[in-house]
Amino acid sequence: MASEPQGIAQVVVGAEDAGQRLDIFLTKLAASTTAMSRSKVQQLIATGAVTVDGEIARARDLTVAGSEIQVQWGQSAAPSPLEPVAMTLDILYEDEHMLVLNKPAGLTVHPGAGDTGPTLVQGLLHHCRELSSGGGTDAMRPGIVHRLDKDTTGVMVCAKTDRAHAALAQQFQDKDTLVREYVALLDGMMGDAQINYASYLYRDPTHRLRMASMTEAEYHLTPERKRPSRPRLAKSQFSREAVFGQRLTLARVRLYTGRTHQIRVHAKALGMAVVGDPLYHWPLQLPLVFPAQIRSQVANISRQMLHAARLDLKHPVSGIQLSFKADVPADFFALLEALAPFRWDLR
Fold first, then answer.
1. Does residue 315 lie within any of the structural domains?
2. For residue range 10-49, what is the model confidence (pLDDT) as tens digits?
3. Which among 2, 139, 164, 250 could disulfide-bond with 159, CB atoms 3.0 to 4.6 Å apart, if both were Cys?
4. Strands (E), 160-305
């Protein structure tokens, strides 16, 4: 009897395989070397062991040419990564329908390929035991309505019931009642007091962990067959708060869409970068106008200086408009304090 495949496999979807259900595609892929039923493949996908372009996939997802699929064969036999884990959570608001928290740096929101440590989902399960079913599409993301990157801090809302999840998810989709505002320290002097920027974001074909950007004009001038796969329109508004030494900019950024790495990619497209960003920034060396101690402090930053400072939304059940805010964390605050002598307020 043929054994089931083991280990980690990666495959890039060819044009001839595009448009298939993911579970069917993987069943065919497994059949080329060994036997594995479609139901077993579906069980594997349900554990979160299959990702497409770094995102946990669903069995019903359709394959897209050029997408990279990673499969952890045999993952279904492993212990569930959703065991509750005790952790300190900074709760800003909580009732029987939802929970709002201030996420710390270094904490991944939900399990994914390559993640080994505890996740926010596991901390939430320990704290409140009952969470929504993740919108009914992903057992690995209970309660998760939206995400923050691992090293981005700040306000997040999570759902405890499916009713609340559906109502919150609709707000994130419609955005009529939603305000999402971030604080970012940028490497680069922002010349204008306010910049509205829009572009299409897509997975960088040369670096699978990054997103790439194409302006709206470039997108519409590019023949459809040559456009990147799965581009998504992203809109941001950058407002200058202050500059430091004619080099760094403290900005407030309002999101009108919520795409992966949106602020980080848009900052780069505008000729700047989020300070400390390991994916989209170059090693930062401040000019000699800054003292050696500050130059060293900035050079040794280990994460992006990006903080979700404000989230406004309607309560998913009562409909009351709510606003939640969180101050920047200690490391961000300490950096701003060190830079204070070089601050110019140019609003």
1. yes
2. 888 888 888 999 989 988 887 765 556 777 788 777 766 7
3. 164
4. 179-187, 194-203, 211-215, 232-244, 248-255, 273-274
